[in-house]
Amino acid sequence: MAVNTTWVFVEEQDGKPAAISLELLTKARTFGGQLAAVLLGTGSAELFAELGRYGATRVFHLTPDERLPTAAAAAAMAELVGSHAPDLLLFGLTSTDRDVAGRLSARLGKPVISNAIEVAIDGDDVTVTNEIFGGAQLVDTVFRAGAPYLVLARPKSFPAEPGDGDTPELIPVEMPEVGQAGSAVVTGRHVEEREGPQLEEAAVVVSAGRGMGSVDQMAIIEELAGLLGAAVGATRAIVDADWIPYSRQVGQTGKTVKPDVYIACGVSGAMQHLVGMKDSKVIIAINKDEEAPIFGVSDLGIVGDVHKVLPNLIAALKAR
Ligand SMILES: Cc1cc2nc3c(=O)[nH]c(=O)nc-3n(C[C@H](O)[C@H](O)[C@H](O)COP(=O)(O)OP(=O)(O)OC[C@H]3O[C@@H](n4cnc5c(N)ncnc54)[C@H](O)[C@@H]3O)c2cc1C
To answer: Is 209 in the pocket of ligand 1 (CB under 6 A)?
Structure first.
């Protein structure tokens, strides 16, 4: 088998493993073989145990200082790869993971395949699937450069499900000096304002598009979301128009969501939006144009004016 050992890069966020890393560990368990995590963060007994539950039998622990840690983390990983020879290295499509994977790719002289939505192992072939043209086409790519295979995967490509693994073996790893590349210092962190359910985790998402007409009309979206316990999402058009912050944008250059129910209000359904929500379980679209592409992915379509449909929907919900 081409892949005997898989490593998953794990960035610690707010004292927990980044959600994407748990998705990748879950996926990596299906490959069989050895599974380890490379943790970049302070670490804690609870966090190590969680990585163990998700299948890591070893955790290589890199502890950052006040410097931007990605260059040193990549250098440390390159040394670890040299001594342990893992076959497959999985990273998430986040800023830190991308930075580390890119630097590691350069250090190892190995390609990295980005934007993966699937990774399959068949004998000696490691095949990575990704979407192009905003999700209109799927491309399968097989590594030909030999191990280690470096893959950056899109969030929500795989479900995160804990297993019943034990607390892993902990291996502290020195962060090497990398000269100028490692000299940038982190001077501040800005936490996104968070109110209500989180977009990526909510079971129901109510999304608004330019068809809402104006920023004043966002109040009705908030009201509907409040009644449904939903998170509010948005198209790039209304983010660009400053109706809502970028953190709410769904799509190619925003977030990927997979809620149980996605309600698109005045959203045309441009490819770049669809790629971030088309895998939602049930999609409901309200659009006055029956030809709008959003209806192509909808389970339930309402051809109508949002200014009429939404007040009626809210009244019906309140009357329940
Ligand atoms: C590189 C790149 C990346 C991009 N990334 C993203 C991304 O991540 N996310 C994203 O969303 N977009 C992204 N876009 C932009 C994308 O191409 C579209 O422009 C955008 O999604 C359109 O937003 P919209 O549906 O709100 O607006 P529009 O396309 O203008 O659609 C508005 C819709 O509202 C309907 N409507 C109008 N009035 C009403 C009414 N009263 N009642 C009901 N319906 C009504 C109209 O029929 C229309 O279908 C990207 C574009 C590029 C080039």
So the answer is: yes
User: Residue length, the chain?
Assistant: 320
Q: Is 211 in the pocket of ligand 1 (CB under 6 A)?
A: yes
Distance CA 236, CA 153 (A): 22
Centre of ligand 1 to C-alpha 270, Å, is 6
Residues 6+ away with beta carbon under 8 Å from 108: 78, 81, 148, 150
Please name the residue that has the structure tokens 């962190």. Answer: 189
3-state secondary structure of 290: coil
Question: 69-79, pLDDT tens digit by residue?
Answer: 999 999 999 99
Q: Which two tokens stand for residue 180?
A: 């100028």
Partners of 59 in the beta sheet? Answer: 37, 170
For ligand 1, mutation pick of 267, 277, 286 (most atoms within 8 Å of CB): 267
- Tokens describing residue 223: 């009201």
**Domains annotated on the chain, with CATH:** 5-182 (3.40.50.620), 204-319 (3.40.50.1220)
Give tens-digit pLDDT for 187-224. 988 777 677 788 988 999 999 999 999 999 999 999 99
Q: Residue 132 C-alpha to ligand 1 middle, in angstroms?
A: 19
The residue behind tokens 């329940």 is 320
How far away, in angstroms, is 236 Cα from ligand 1 center?
A: 7
State the pLDDT confidence band at 268, using cuts at 50, 70 and 90.
Answer: very high
User: 152 with 92: CB under 8 angstroms?
Assistant: yes
> Ligand 1 pocket, 107 CB below 6 A?
no
What span, in angstroms and rounded, lies between the C-alpha atoms of 107 and 77?
Answer: 10
Question: What pTM was computed for the model?
Answer: 0.81
Strands 88-92 and 5-13 come out as parallel
Whole-number CA gyration radius for the chain: 22
